[in-house]
Specification:
Number of helices: 14
Number of domains: 2
Number of strands: 21
Shape: elongated
CATH topology of the largest domain: Aminopeptidase
Helix content: 25-40%
Distance between the termini: 25 Å
């Protein structure tokens, strides 16, 4: 989709469709007021008839409005003024994109970003408009014989009113395009079935990304290489699968040569049946989404490469399947991690932490400024926070502040949960340095405590995205989260946020 920034007199702009915001049932936004004046009060007369409801997301399509060069005008409800916030704004953007698809126009001019809630940063308002429009164009049809109809909108022009705002607006547009590309990649990888999206496929996707962006360097460690290093925890997970495990290591050097990199580690369980501790049959198909942590790392890297961010970044993906087999982990087995610490496997379905602990230890060689792991780790976190917020775990106050702020600014929120030493005793084992699970109570907390034992040398945070990485029911599919949070965090570290 072509995207551009526009300013100037709206009434003289030729466009197949002009989008204007309406607050409540009758209160025109500033751009709409200018159009109302140019049309001799036409919009006011229409609204006085009560044809547009006050709810955010309602739309009304008008044809041949007098005094305008626009062929159509789409009025978009923003909701009551006293309730007009970012949530209502995003709802209006989504509704507008949907209506444009229904009327099948190829080009439109929108003023909605210029009518965003006053509390919302204008740059974020523009970015939201861009990402919403591009996200609407995402279609999953890779495995369908009949492809979904393409999104017809080919060009969207964003009106900002003030010519002086164009430089900042263009940067917001650029960020929005890169973010949308990252989210789209994460969604596509998450939506692919496990027979296509294997550990090898994820490795190939990393190589493809490096082919498209030469600034990215990729190394893929096979099982023999991991065995030589001593990654006993990671390798134990893949024993029950015919698909070989991979450790995918990606490096981007966009910052100063001597600057310490940031590291993102994404859990890449391309299918998780639970192993010998077999998951219940209903909804097991959704375990193809257990690699959404890996998908988010690839998505964040894609956005980073698009933006050429001035920082150094490492992406690490431990990729595997977890299936039952005669060679698979058994409850009671003890494995030795790359760190040298031993782990008693009490539940083979707590496999993600076995992948992550070795990957986190591997990250030590890069001496990162900070490492963030992202994983669909525990159902307990999904029970606690639902699908609204990802769980954030860290003992580093500065890192917590950064990530929470990134979540708020991006709209991809997280909620901090404790990793207090009080919970460490839940992992006590009579036979190894630790067990891989604690009791059911506090399951997300003990999982984070497990990971903390492998990050004592690194500023570390853990994002549990079990509740936010995908949707169920009619809207079933990957969400692309937490790519927006991660990209905002990287923008902050690069000095480009705000």
């Amino acid at each position: 989709m072509e995207l551009s920034i526009k300013s100037g007199d709206l009434a003289t702009r030729k466009t197949p469709c002009l989008l204007l915001g309406v607050l409540g049932e009758r209160q025109l936004t500033a751009p709409a007021q200018s159009i109302d004046a140019a049309s001799g009060g036409y919009l006011t007369r229409i609204l006085d008839r009560g044809d547009l409801e006050a709810e955010a997301g309602r739309t009304l399509l008008l044809h041949e409005v007098p005094g305008l060069k626009a062929e159509r005008v789409l009025l978009v409800g923003l909701g009551p003024q006293d309730k007009y916030d970012r949530k209502a704004y995003l709802k209006a953007l989504a509704a507008a994109s949907g209506r444009l698809q229904e009327i099948r126009v190829k080009e439109a001019l929108t003023t909605l970003a210029a009518s965003a809630p006053p509390a919302l940063d204008p740059a974020l308002a523009l970015r939201d408009a861009v990402t919403t429009a591009l996200d609407r164009g995402y279609r999953y049809d890779r495995t369908k014989s009949e492809k979904k109809p393409p999104f017809t909108l080919q060009a969207l022009h964003l009106w900002i009113g003030d010519e002086d705002r164009k430089p900042r607006a263009r940067e917001a547009l650029r960020q929005g395009q890169a973010l949308a590309a990252g989210v789209s990649l994460a969604k596509e990888l998450g939506n692919l079935p496990g027979n296509l999206c294997t550990p090898t496929y994820l490795a190939d996707q990393a190589r493809d990304l490096a082919q498209a962006f030469p600034a990215l360097k990729v190394e893929v460690l096979d099982e023999d290489a991991m065995a030589k290093l001593g990654m006993g925890a990671l390798l134990s997970v893949s024993r029950g699968s015919r698909q070989p495990a991979k450790l995918i290591v990606m490096s981007y050097r966009g910052g100063k040569k001597d600057a310490k990199p940031l590291a993102l580690v994404g859990k890449g369980l391309t299918f998780d049946a639970g192993g010998i501790s077999l998951k219940p049959g209903p909804d097991m198909d959704q375990m193809k989404f257990d690699m959404c942590g890996a998908a988010s790392v690839l998505g964040a890297l894609r956005a980073t490469l698009e933006l050429k961010l001035p920082l150094n970044l490492i992406g690490v993906i431990p990729a595997s399947e977890n299936l039952p087999d005669g060679a698979a982990n058994k409850p009671g087995d003890i494995v030795t991690s790359l760190s040298g610490q031993t782990i008693e496997i009490l539940n083979t379905d707590a496999e993600g932490r076995l992948l992550l602990c070795d990957a986190l230890t591997y990250c030590e060689r890069f001496e990162p400024a900070a490492v963030v792991d992202i994983a669909t780790l525990t159902g307990a976190c999904a029970i606690a926070l639902g699908k609204v917020a990802s769980g954030l775990f860290t003992a580093d106050e500065g890192l917590a502040t950064e990530l929470l702020a990134a979540g708020e600014r991006s709209g991809d929120r997280a909620w901090r949960l404790p990793v207090w030493d009080d919970y460490q005793a839940l992992l006590d084992s009579n036979f190894a340095d630790m067990a891989n699970v604690g009791p059911r109570e506090g399951g997300a907390l003990s999982a984070a405590c497990f990971l903390s034992r492998y990050t004592k040398k690194i500023p570390w945070a853990h994002l549990d995205i079990a509740g936010t990485a995908w949707l169920t029911g009619k809207e079933k599919g990957g969400t692309g989260r937490p790519v927006p949070l991660l990209v905002e965090f990287l923008l902050q570290r690069a000095g480009l946020a705000g």
